[in-house]
Amino acid sequence: MAWESLNPPRDYLKAGVRKPYRDVIDVSWGDPHRAGVKPLSFVRQVLAACLYPKLMEGDRLMVDVRQRAQRLLKECAGGSIGSYSNTAGIPEIVQRVSEFITRRDGGVPCRRENIFISSGSQWALNILKVLVNSEASPRTGVLTPVPCHSTTILSLMALGAAAVPYHLTEERGWALEVEELQRALDSAKGVCSPVALYVINPGNPAGYVQNRKSMQEVIRFAAEKRLFLLADEVYQDCVYGKTEFVSYKRALAEMGPPLSETVELASFHTASKGLMGECGLRAGYVELVNLDPAVMKHINSLFSTNSCAPVLGQIALDVMTNPPQPGDPSYPLYMKHIRTSLAENVRRVEEVVNSLPGFSCQPVEGGAFAFPTVFLPPKAIERAKEVGMKPDTFYCLRLLEEAGLLFSPGTEYGQKEGTYHIRFCIMIPLDVMEELLRRLSGFHKRFMKEFS
Amino acid sequence: MNHGTALLWKRRALSSLSTTRRGLPKEKMSENGMMSRAKVLTIDTMNPTVKKVEYAVRGPIVQRAVELERELSEGMKKPFTEVIKANIGDAHAMGQQPITFFRQVLALCSYPELLSDSAFPEDAKSRACRILNSCGGNSMGSYSASQGIESVRQDVARYIERRDGGVPCDPDNIYLTTGASDGIVTMLKLLVCGEGAMRTGVMISIPQYPLYSAALAELGAVQINYYLNEGKCWSLDIDELQRALNEARLYCNPRALCIINPGNPTGQVQSRECIEDVIRFAAKERLFLMADEVYQDNVYAEGCQFHSFKKVLFEMGPEYSETVELASFHSSSKCYMGECGFRGGYMEIINMDDDVKAQLTKLLSVRLCPPVPGQALMDLVVNPPQPGEPSYERFIKERTATLSVLAEKAKLTEQVLNTVEGIRCNPVQGAMYSFPRLTIPEKALQEAKELGQQPDMFYCMKMLEETGICLVPGSGFGQKEGTYHFRMTILPPTDKLKILLNNVKEFHQRFTQQYS
User: Per the CATH hierarchy, to which homologous superfamily does domain B52-94+394-515 belong?
Assistant: First the structure.
């Protein structure tokens, strides 16, 4: 990834160079812990107890922590988290995940055989492996949004597939328009053979949350054009605006037969985002809907070669889908956390960024990032060209050097020709956000003045 | 590998049943012209190479074992009271205890508030702090660099240097992985290319650990089988390597040679001379060497010793050490740790072209990073308590106990199985399995054929249904035509293992009797 190879931020400080800032604020990843957010106590206590059961002696840990850990250990072979689990995950955890999905979707049934827990993004890779025929000519194509986080594009390339970009409409809050899907599909004629439509909701990097109507249009389009629907919903717990999150599974179910029984859908979720932010534990799941049973058998074989998802990650998923409830001793501490400060972060970001000339930020309805447009002056674009960089990369490099803020340039995600964006993670502590906005404002004003 | 005809019928029946249940109209077009039946993703449209992927260790016999467990828990009567999963190399599942020190440090890393708790020894605390300091935001919940946490890679490099008597190791050549499997599959991805007669061929031992055959099938690579010599305790003959290579050159482009040492499923520990021969062979024939060494601490037999390919390579001098391309793999799932659920591992890459290294880094970045707890565990494995440290005594005691019990069980398994007429078991020199050869009576071979099953699958299925013991048939690993085996782990606790071995013995005698 070009941007990452340009600037390992720690090296700046290691080299002993004097800077006008004490530390680099790294918000280039969707990694809340890295940015200073503390892990949730409950899940970490449960993990510690599962790792070292002796901790459960005495009153060191709260009773609900002990009960959860004991239950989980009983569900592990040999009572140890060091054992392999079943391919799709510890069956009882898979069951609870399926119950979570049903609750989330207002009662829409969820079959546990359709769920595979896996190591982070492995779920997506495995599903893509089944869809993408690397020997086919023309190549398999997958419709992907612009902007889109780079991991998906890289995965597609690694499998020999083609990404077929469809542009989201920034002026309308990054809306997904069917006409644009059609245009993208048409552009693929003779180039590749599209088999799937990949949607991200809530978005990354753009912070939109799709409304039901838009989702129904997407579903109808996928059905009509015979596309497998891949729904990346890892930010479903990060919603701040007016639009409620509705899962594609639910939207599909509510449309009734024949669509609800035929459209093939894979939905992804993870313990890496949301309140947990446990990226390093590598745990996620995919729910597969309406797949051919014969294909499911092969998908199972494919997952089996990965053995199983890391057990600690599975435990994190268990807590994510079944957090402490009102009345549980750990509940008060669990609730008193990031959600309130996230809404506040979003408010402050929109307020500050939109007040700065040369910036425009669509409402951040959900997700982990702000993705404002930067209107770069022609002189800045010239200078960037001179040093052989994309204009937004140039902006970000200066931002790092002068203000100690590590953002990522829009060029990494794709954007409309002639537009420039920057992305930064908003899932950070309130005080860090204030510092970030202070530095950003200062830098931006100076930058705009320099290149006016 | 054939599945039983019974299974095929069952699958077809189920799929048509579910169609009827769904109430889907057959070839009906609705008013707005949408097809309501045909799926986008079918057996015919899916990636053809994925269809060839099979992984016997978690294959159909295990699925049946899980079904039986469910039936037992629902109260169904069986000729046994529990299902024993002797199919998978999962030590903790069979009652092996984790190393206390490792679990203490990891608990501290998970919940650092425990650092103020007097229940933990000081050395565990200082290890935990060191690990946390190298994690983003001091949390195991942060992503790490794709290649793995730098300080862990440095510790791995130092471990390798100590293990190999001072042969230098560059941390930049160390890649932390999600179990060893992640590294193995990634390397194969890099190696496989070409079309038709130039398609990459990869040499792998028969019998082999079926991750290799599965990965090669998925990548559409050519699997080149070289047979280990069962009569000579599963040794590797260079002549056999040469034969396999020469034949393969006619229809593919052989580029890599995979070797598992100590072996899986066969358990043989290669001699130093053998390793040198393999290296010379790889150098001469220009093959990339892949050395799967995950069982490096599991060596039991008298006169056997683990020699790492890296060490031997370097001791052969610059003619080899500067030219032979080698990837060595290790994991936290085996040895004395048995921490399969952590998915910890690493690989060391020697003499890889720099441009290819850049591509490797890119490929690894797609999966973001390996699980951080697994990386932390690997750090402890390569950096265990030292003499003088508070946790040292206990650590050594636990490790020695675990390894010596495994050695006893290896011996016991070989002994008992060799008392059975019709079972021949080579010494279990290392690893975690026995891979005995079975004599299957003609009538049984017939019946298996009629059912469309491999004879050893037929045998193992029967054993499962009659005794509750789940093994993996040799056909899942590959074996010489006309021979039959099963793979059984040596992991159950000694008293249970004795009962198990006895049940296997009795089953074999009954089976032989039944089909005589």
Answer: Aspartate Aminotransferase, domain 1 (3.90.1150.10)
Contact B137 A35 (CB under 8 A): yes
Output the pTM of the full model.
Answer: 0.91
Mean pLDDT along residues B220-238? 96
Chain A residue with the nearest C-alpha to that of B215: A305
Listed in sequence order, the residues at least 6 apart from B189 whose beta carbon sits closer than 8 Å to its beta carbon are A158, B219, B363
Alpha carbon of B297: minimum distance to chain A alpha carbons (Å): 18
List, by residue range, all CATH 3.90.1150.10 domains of chain B.
Answer: 52-94+394-515
Chains A and B form CB pairs within 8 A to the count of 261
Q: Please give the full DSSP string across B258-327, using - where no structure is assigned.
A: EEESS-TTT-----HHHHHHHHHHHHHHT-EEEEE-TTTT-B-STT-----HHHHHHHT-HHHHTT--EE
A114 touches chain B (CB under 8 A): no
Residue with tokens 């978005």: A203
Model confidence at B214: pLDDT above 90: yes
Per-residue burial over B155-191, b if 16 or more Cβ lie within 10 Å, else e, is bbbebbbebbeebebebebbbbbbbbbbbbbbbbbbb
| Set of chain A residues whose Cβ sits within 8 Å of the Cβ of B119 | 54-55, 60
pLDDT tens-digit readout, A29-81 = 888 888 888 899 999 999 999 999 999 998 999 999 999 999 999 999 999 99
Tokens of A135: 């020997």
Helix (H/G/I), strand (E/B), else coil: B513: helix
3-state SS assignment for residue A205: coil
Query: If you measure CA to CA, which chain B residue comes closest to A120?
Result: B367
Residues sharing a CB contact under 8 Å with residue B373, sequence separation 6 or more, in sequence order: A280, A281, A310, A312, B106, B109, B110, B140, B342, B344
Q: Is A384 on the interface with B (CB under 8 A)?
A: no
Task: Report residue A12 as tokens.
Answer: 């700046």
**Could you tell me which of A445, A377, A372, A449 has the C-alpha nearest to residue A408?**
A372
What is the distance between the alpha carbons of residues B158 and B172, in angstroms, rounded to a whole number?
12
Beta-carbon contacts of residue B200 (< 8 Å; ≥ 6 apart): B191, B192, B193, B194, B221, B222, B252, B253, B254, B255, B256
Instruction: In chain B, count H helices and then E strands.
Output: 18, 14
| Domain spanning B106-382: CATH 3.40.640.10 | yes
Neighbours of B225 (CB within 10 A): 17
Structural domains of chain A, with CATH: 2-30+341-450 (3.90.1150.10), 91-321 (3.40.640.10)
Does the beta carbon of A264 lie under 8 angstroms from any beta carbon of chain B? Answer: yes
pLDDT for res A15: 53
pLDDT, tens only, B61-75 = 998 999 999 999 999
Nearest to B142 among A31, A41, A120 (CB): A31
Report helix, strand and coil shares of chain A as percent, to nearest 5. Answer: 45, 15, 40
Q: Is residue A288 helix, strand or coil?
A: strand
User: Which residues in chain B have Cβ-Cβ distances shorter than 8 Å to A294?
Assistant: 11, 15, 42-43
Are B151 and B176 spatial neighbours (Cβ–Cβ below 8 Å)? no
The two three-digit tokens of residue B239, written as one number: 């002549």
Please name the member of B94, B107, B141 whose beta carbon is closest to the beta carbon of A48.
Answer: B107
Chain region(s) in chain B for CATH 3.40.640.10: 106-382
Whole-number Cα distances in Å, B312 to A271, B291, B293, B309: 43, 12, 13, 5
Residue B370 and residue B330 in contact, taking contact as beta carbons nearer than 8 Å? no
Query: Which of A31, A45, A85 shows the shortest C-beta gap to B136?
Result: A31
Model confidence pLDDT, tens digit, residues A134-145 = 778 899 999 999
Q: What is the pLDDT of residues B88-142, one digit of tens each?
A: 999 999 999 999 999 999 999 999 999 999 999 999 999 999 999 999 999 999 9
